[in-house]
Amino acid sequence: MSLQISDLLTTISINKDLWFQFLGDRLSFHYIGLPDDIHITISFNANSPDINLHVSRNLDVENKPKVEVMRINKELLNNLQQNIGLSIFNSMFEPLQLKPYHLYSDRCGYFSWDTLNEQSVQTAFENNLVKGFRPVSRMKGKKKFKIEGDLTQPFETLASSIHLSNVMLRNIRPVPKVHRTPTEGGIMLFKNKSFMVIRIFDAWYKVRDEITIFQMLSSSIKPEILRTLSCNLRKAIILTRNANTYQEVKDAKLSVRLTTDSFLFQLPTWLDKISVSESN
User: Across the strands, what pairs with 258?
Assistant: First the structure.
């Protein structure tokens, strides 16, 4: 029998800004900006061929108001998930030209994530991360994890660790020109800046400076479909917020069924290299 996240945790909350609840075949969440008594649920009902997203109101009644906003066939989603993931990747990362960094190699360094596999580095990293999170996190009951306080504190503790800093400094290398693996990732340090980078074959990418959820989603879902979903979600929140029972909102016609035609993928160019290598 496979282990589900709900077997370990049922709720993760960050102050009053965000919470997630895992209940078997449902994932519910609330984020800052939603009314306090409203949450959004993604339902993976085993008895249905579809996954649906709906808005619910937290009321202590059996027929609580809820309005469906989106529905997609599970098999279709499974077939499209690779392209969706690649399109989101493409929206989050932008190509990085390494020539300027090679020209100024005396002011440029590279820390590989592979270094974290070394026991000394991994231990230092984990110890300082746990040390940072301990003052602002706690378990409530057996399956509820709460973070309360300044969320930047754990990362400031991590960044200010002299021991970890020394370990990282000892492992900073010039930006590699010869590659032993198809992919790698790490942190690029240039002058007084640092940024995360990844390499796929001989192409390097960095995280885009500004990226929104809408931009990430619009990399795979057609803009007109996404605008309709966004508009219907706002309407569903208003309708649900003003209802006390499901009967009051059951006739709302806001659900959009996603089909193959709903998607327009923006795939990264390095996929061409994979296609060529597979054909050879």
Answer: 72
- pLDDT tens profile 69-89: 999 999 999 999 999 988 988
Q: How many CA atoms lie less than 13 Å away from 232 in the CB half-sphere?
A: 20
pTM: 0.74
- Which among 65, 63, 66 has a CA at the least distance from the CA of 52? 66
- 192-210 b/e with 16+ CB inside 10 Å = b? eeeeebbbbeeebbeeeee
User: Cα(204)–Cα(185) distance, rounded to whole angstroms?
Assistant: 9
Which residue type does 235 have? K
Strand partners, 147: 14, 137
Point out which residues pair with 70 in neighbouring strands.
Answer: 53, 256
- pLDDT one-digit tens code per residue, 16-55: 788 888 888 889 999 889 999 999 999 999 999 999 999 9
